[in-house]
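RECORD TYPE: inverse folding
INPUT: structure tokens
STRUCTURE:
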């Protein structure tokens, strides 16, 4: 498959994904839209107590909707307010330019910096939870959790979950681990096919905001991975 053909497949996948979403006004995948919208509203600002509470609640529910509150998750043992320090990190003025950034404008060093701060905060929470439960902490907090937070708030990185990873691996577009190298490959891939991708994104909006470019890659590669792993293409949502 040529680069041009792959770009069209990803764009078509994203449009199909979004079209199904539009038919479900209260579908669980709309949690991303709600979370992204409210964080965009407060980018670079210091929210009041009630606003911060709402931000924590939206982040928690989005993560739950997207599979991060399964039985084995340390987050399941905490209430939604545990995301408070992560919200503070995300809304630091230093990172405001990452919100909804086009691929050509994403500061990858800044993105990796904020991702590691988010990972460190969740690592502290996980250690406390596991200490109470008498469990041994192994490895680092997953790229899946960190990147789902990035996607749900900034919208400038795809969620490196099982199917997205399978998708980019099968098409050899980026590495399967979230890092600067992998993100740089995704940025280049988008820029090389910007006409096709931008045209697909033109009809995708939420509360007056354009869907971010990385969201298109997230949706497009997710479907490729879902089907590649044996999923029914007609149920890829």
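DESIGNED SEQUENCE:
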């Amino acid at each position: 498959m040529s680069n041009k053909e792959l770009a069209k497949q990803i764009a078509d996948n994203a449009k199909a994904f979004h079209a199904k979403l539009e038919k479900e006004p209260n579908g669980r995948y709309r949690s991303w839209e709600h979370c992204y919208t409210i964080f965009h509203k407060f980018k670079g600002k210091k929210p009041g107590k009630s606003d911060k509470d709402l931000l924590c609640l939206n982040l928690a529910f989005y993560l739950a909707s997207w599979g991060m509150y399964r039985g084995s998750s340390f987050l399941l043992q905490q209430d939604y307010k545990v995301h408070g320090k992560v919200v503070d990190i995300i809304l630091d003025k230093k990172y405001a330019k990452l919100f909804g950034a086009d691929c050509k404008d994403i500061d990858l060093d800044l993105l990796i910096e904020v991702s590691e701060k988010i990972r460190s905060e969740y690592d502290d929470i996980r250690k406390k939870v596991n200490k109470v439960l008498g469990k041994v902490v192994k490895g680092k907090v997953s790229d899946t959790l960190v990147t789902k937070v990035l996607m749900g708030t900034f919208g400038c990185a795809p969620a490196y979950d099982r199917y997205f990873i399978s998708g980019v691996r099968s098409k050899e577009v980026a590495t399967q681990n979230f890092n600067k190298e992998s993100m740089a490959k995704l940025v280049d891939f988008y820029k090389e096919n910007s006409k096709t991708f931008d045209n697909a994104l033109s009809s995708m909006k939420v509360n007056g905001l354009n869907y971010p470019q990385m969201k298109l890659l997230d949706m497009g590669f997710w479907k490729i991975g879902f089907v590649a792993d044996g999923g029914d293409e007609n149920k890829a949502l």
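NOTES: The longest helix spans residues 108-133.
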